[in-house]
């Protein structure tokens, strides 16, 4: 039997001990004496959330397919166990071997959302690894970050030795080989980092320094190691039908947020909505072939025994082989008694037909994401969804038997007026009116239900709206009330339910998203005051953050409400995502004028992603 | 032989649960078996509807922290993948460390469902306590000699005193373990913790405060004669 790091007594005293025991179906056990590199892959949130993350599973599978590497997993200990580990000095361990992570060669941390930053420090601290990269010695693991938040790594730059910028499939082999060579030659940590920074995609923050102007904006970025590259281009896997994919995904013992097989059908998005970071970061659009997806889908169902399958992409309706793929999957899943959980699809005859095949129409709902209440506002954000399309889709769905409609919006978008916010209520009302117009009285036994949800717009790096000011917490609260009274003033208000997102979390996310290196000491201090699990409302304590920022002389408004000038140097400008700053700036100007930009399939707008030499940029547009 | 025949059949599976798997709760164990059966290719029957589920029933939930030599789950299948030994191997190939399939038997068509069949269960309990030590042999004897053993049974709504003495069928102390066979039916289930508390009450009139290492050894049904029989033995070879 494997020996566990935690005693029975501890495991029986905490919530959900299955989070910490490892040994799941398809987890990988190797002999630690027979590998050269031990890699601890960490998700800085609780197991229940982290286990659902596809990116880690892809990398786990890739690393463990290499004989000389053993990759294991680590998730944040929930606060109940965190307390016990600190009290009893139990070091953080990886699930497979149950060994202390400080014995590993690499500690990789995925950066999925800004609100997990204090949890990064929790992992390092419990692991016995110095929190600051500058304080680590030759015996400490190399701490490497990756994932969406590494596209602005500066607020957490002090804590990482390396950031891997881009998709993990391409450069890890080279990085690990460099590491092995350094280890064999007895090279120092610094020697290794000097070699690592010359591998494409690797950003070593300690080789750079930021200088600031009097107004707080960046004057220049200088190098402390002359050989380090000036810019770092993101890595992309250009052939997604011939690469690593976890055909034997891990099967957790306990119920997690999403217990299902995930089929990633494509990366990137043709749409170019101006608020959307993923839409720019993951360009160019690259599809996996239908044949490849069919084969891995069956393999994954067979190897896991999971009862549900879902598709993953930024915009599944834009996948060119969707009909063929879904026909195949519906057929196969029916045979196997497996449910298909559909991603949100553009509502049309095809998607309604598919939905009626895989779900109980009466119990399921339709989802639209207009993001803004008026056409004027939707043009500003380049959201190509019109009211006409929504109402037409809703009408078709009502005839098909659907009665529930969910609508997603954002508040606090740039140039937003109260009329735009009130437009949300009008749009919801018009959906309800469509129901009453289309469906004869005798078929209305089950009433129509509309749920409108708003989140607060947070400007993100590498988007056309990265120059835009973000609203204050007070403004958000006011806007939510404008939206609510807008809904209440509608004829069909009783049919509309309204939810809105927490304002304090949004503000902190906004600060961290466009932050710079001056925020590292703030995060460190907030952590030292005991703050972890900021992504969880029950543990989030915004007052601590405000207090620390004030004491350290950090003005939060500098990061949020300030409008950036066109020529400002951003903390993330040294990263090259293919899409150029010039294109983004042009898009920002188009937003100001309400000019819509066509999607990649209609016309190339010259964003710069063609530099990667593949994907949609090089497809014949007359054929698609 | 029923082999290869296409008809609904009930199978009874006996498995062990040891080591780290004792931290997997009852609902998660059910889900674990659903997935293992899918992976194994066993031709299990499903209910209809939009979210079909496997026809599967566990005899008796096992608490988190408790290990077991003999857990019982019944399934319905449309066809058999092999004989008793072969099917045991097929399912064992899908088990993670800590779960072992001991046996699979064919149930008669008229067999009562697993949960309703449960009459008793036997447990071995090792007491790990840094607190007051009691003379277990004397306490066991004291309980056996009593006509009535009252314990406080807590439910969500109320606390009531119940007599568990008639539902303790066997009780002994050997090899530093308390061994017991107690009622496990849905109407009169006695938890091993109840018996341990009663032992402490008999000696010190105090509540036990320590840790128990509990292993369930067997789950029993009852024959018409009144005799207890391991649930697995209600099924036959195939």
CATH level-4 homologous superfamily of the domain at 8-233 in chain A: Response regulator
Structural class of chain B: alpha+beta
- Give the percentage of residues in beta strands of chain B: 25-35%
Instruction: Describe the sheet with the most strands of chain B.
Output: 9 strands, mixed
CATH level-1 class of the largest domain in chain B: Alpha Beta
Describe the structure.
- The complex is a heterodimer of chains A (624) and B (238).
- Chain A is globular, with a radius of gyration of 25 Å.
- The mean pLDDT of chain A is 95.
- Chain A has helices at residues 8-13, 47-50, 54-64, 79-88, 117-127, 172-184, 189-196, 277-281, 290-304, 322-336, 349-358, 375-380, 387-399, 418-438, 473-488, 503-513, 520-528, 542-551, 556-559, 581-593; strands spanning 37-43, 69-75, 106-110, 142-146, 162-164, 202-203, 208-212, 218-223, 232-233, 261-264, 266-267, 286-287, 308-312, 339-341, 365-371, 404-411, 449-456, 496-500, 575-576.
- Chain A is 34% helix and 14% strand.
- Chain A has a domain at 8-233: Rossmann fold.
- Chain A is built from 20 helices and 19 strands.
- Chain A has 624 residues and is α/β, with parallel strands linked by helices.
- Chain B is α+β, with helices and mostly antiparallel strands and 238 residues long.
- Chain B has 2 domains: 9-116, Pseudouridine synthase I, catalytic domain, N-terminal subdomain (Alpha-Beta Plaits, 2-Layer Sandwich), CATH 3.30.70.580; 131-209, no CATH class.
- Chain B contains 5 helices and 11 strands; from the N terminus they run E-H-E-E-H-E-H-E-H-E-E-E-E-H-E-E.
- In chain B, strands 1, 2, 3, 4, 5, 8, 9, 10 and 11 form a 9-stranded mixed beta sheet that branches. Chain B has a two-stranded antiparallel sheet with strand order 6-7.
- Chain B is elongated.
- The relative contact order of chain B is 0.20.
- Mean pLDDT of chain B is 91; it is low at 1-5.
List the helices and strands and how they pair.
The complex is a heterodimer of chains A (624) and B (238).
Chain A: H1 8-13, E1 37-43, H2 47-50, H3 54-64, E2 69-75, H4 79-88, E3 106-110, H5 117-127, E4 142-146, E5 162-164, H6 172-184, H7 189-196, E6 202-203, E7 208-212, E8 218-223, E9 232-233, E10 261-264, E11 266-267, H8 277-281, E12 286-287, H9 290-304, E13 308-312, H10 322-336, E14 339-341, H11 349-358, E15 365-371, H12 375-380, H13 387-399, E16 404-411, H14 418-438, E17 449-456, H15 473-488, E18 496-500, H16 503-513, H17 520-528, H18 542-551, H19 556-559, E19 575-576, H20 581-593
Parallel strand pairs in A: 1-2, 1-3, 3-4, 4-5, 9-19, 10-13, 13-14, 15-16, 16-17, 17-18
Antiparallel strand pairs in A: 5-6, 7-8, 11-12
Helix pairs in contact in A: 5-17, 6-7, 9-10, 10-11, 13-14, 14-15, 15-16, 17-18
Chain B: E1 9-17, H1 26-40, E2 56-58, E3 67-77, H2 84-92, E4 99-107, H3 114-117, E5 120-128, H4 136-145, E6 150-154, E7 159-163, E8 168-174, E9 177-183, H5 192-204, E10 211-222, E11 228-230
């Amino acid at each position: 039997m494997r020996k566990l790091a935690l005693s029975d007594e501890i495991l029986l005293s905490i919530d959900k001990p299955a989070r910490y025991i490892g040994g799941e179906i398809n987890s990988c056990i190797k002999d630690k004496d027979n590998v050269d590199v031990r890699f601890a892959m960490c998700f800085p949130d609780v197991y229940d959330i982290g286990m659902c993350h596809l990116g880690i599973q892809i990398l786990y599978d890739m690393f463990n397919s290499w004989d000389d590497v053993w990759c294991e997993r680590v998730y944040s200990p929930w606060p109940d166990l965190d307390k016990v580990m600190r009290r009893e000095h139990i070091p953080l361990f990886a699930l497979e071997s149950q060994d202390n992570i400080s014995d590993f060669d690499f500690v990789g941390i995925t950066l999925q959302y800004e609100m997990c930053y204090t949890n990064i420090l929790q992992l390092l601290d419990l692991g016995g690894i110095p929190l600051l990269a500058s304080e680590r010695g030759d015996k400490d693991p190399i701490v490497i970050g990756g994932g969406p938040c590494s596209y602005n790594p500066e607020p957490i730059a002090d804590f990482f030795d390396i950031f891997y910028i881009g998709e993990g499939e391409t450069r890890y082999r080279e990085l690990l080989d460099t590491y092995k060579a350094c280890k064999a030659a007895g090279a120092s940590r610094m020697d290794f980092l000097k070699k690592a920074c010359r591998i494409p995609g690797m950003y070593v923050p300690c080789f750079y320094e930021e200088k600031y102007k009097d107004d707080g904006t960046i004057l220049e970025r200088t190098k402390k190691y002359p050989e380090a590259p000036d810019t770092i281009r993101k890595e992309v896997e250009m052939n997604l039908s011939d690469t690593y994919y976890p055909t034997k995904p891990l099967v957790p013992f306990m119920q997690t947020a999403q217990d299902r097989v995930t089929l990633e059908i494509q990366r990137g998005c043709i749409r170019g909505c101006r608020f959307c970071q993923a839409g720019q970061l993951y360009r160019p659009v690259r599809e996996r072939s239908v044949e490849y997806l069919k084969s891995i889908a069956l393999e994954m169902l067979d190897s896991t025994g999971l009862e549900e399958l879902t598709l993953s992409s930024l915009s599944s309706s834009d996948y060119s082989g969707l009909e063929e793929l879904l026909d195949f999957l519906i057929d196969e899943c029916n045979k196997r008694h497996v449910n298909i959980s559909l991603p949100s699809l553009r509502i049309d005859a095809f998607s309604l037909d598919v939905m009626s095949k895989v779900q109980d129409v009466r119990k399921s709902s339709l989802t639209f994401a207009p993001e803004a209440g008026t056409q004027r506002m939707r043009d500003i954000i380049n959201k190509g969804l019109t009211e006409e399309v929504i109402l037409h889709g809703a009408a078709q769905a009502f005839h098909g038997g659907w009665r529930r409609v969910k609508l997603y919006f954002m508040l606090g978008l740039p140039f937003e007026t109260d009329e735009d916010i009130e437009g949300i209520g009008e749009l919801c009302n018009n959906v309800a009116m469509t129901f009453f117009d289309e469906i004869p009285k005798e078929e209305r036994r089950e009433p129509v239900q509309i749920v409108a949800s708003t989140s607060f717009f947070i400007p993100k790096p590498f988007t056309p709206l990265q120059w835009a000011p973000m609203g204050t917490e007070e403004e958000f609260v006011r806007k939510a009330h404008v939206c609510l009274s807008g809904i209440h003033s509608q004829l069909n208000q009783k049919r509309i339910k309204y939810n809105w997102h927490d304002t304090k979390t949004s503000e902190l996310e906004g600060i961290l998203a466009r932050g710079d290196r001056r925020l590292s000491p703030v995060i460190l201090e907030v952590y030292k005051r005991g703050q972890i699990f900021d992504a969880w409302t029950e543990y989030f304590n915004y007052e601590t953050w405000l207090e620390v920022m004030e004491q350290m002389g950090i003005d939060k408004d500098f990061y949020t409400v300030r409008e950036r000038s066109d020529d400002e140097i951003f903390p993330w400008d040294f990263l090259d995502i293919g899409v150029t700053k010039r294109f983004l700036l042009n898009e920002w100007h188009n937003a100001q004028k309400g000019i819509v930009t066509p999607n990649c399939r209609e016309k190339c707008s010259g964003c710069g992603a063609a530099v990667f030499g593949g994907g949609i940029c090089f497809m014949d547009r007359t054929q698609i | 032989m029923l082999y290869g025949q296409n008809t609904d059949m009930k199978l009874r599976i006996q498995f062990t649960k040891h080591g780290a798997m004792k931290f997997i709760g009852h609902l998660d164990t059910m889900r674990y078996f659903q997935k293992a059966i899918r992976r194994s290719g066993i031709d299990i029957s499903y209910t209809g509807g939009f979210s079909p589920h496997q026809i599967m029933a566990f005899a008796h939930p096992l608490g988190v922290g408790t290990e077991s030599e003999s857990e019982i789950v019944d399934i319905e299948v449309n066809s058999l993948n092999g004989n008793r030994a072969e099917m045991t191997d097929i399912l064992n190939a899908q088990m993670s460390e800590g779960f072992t399939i001991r046996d699979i038997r064919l149930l008669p068509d008229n067999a009562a469902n697993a949960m309703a069949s449960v009459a008793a269960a036997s447990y071995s309990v090792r007491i790990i306590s840094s607190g007051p030590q009691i003379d277990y042999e004397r306490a066991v004897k004291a309980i056996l000699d009593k006509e009535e053993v009252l314990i406080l049974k807590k439910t969500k709504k109320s606390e009531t005193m119940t007599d568990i003495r008639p539902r303790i069928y066997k009780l002994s102390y050997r090899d530093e373990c308390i061994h017991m066979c107690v009622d496990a039916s849905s109407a009169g289930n006695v938890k091993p913790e109840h018996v341990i508390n009663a032992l402490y009450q008999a000696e010190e009139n105090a509540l036990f405060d320590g840790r128990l290492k509990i292993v369930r050894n067997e789950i029993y049904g009852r024959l018409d004669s009144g005799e207890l029989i391991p649930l697995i033995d209600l099924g036959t070879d195939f």
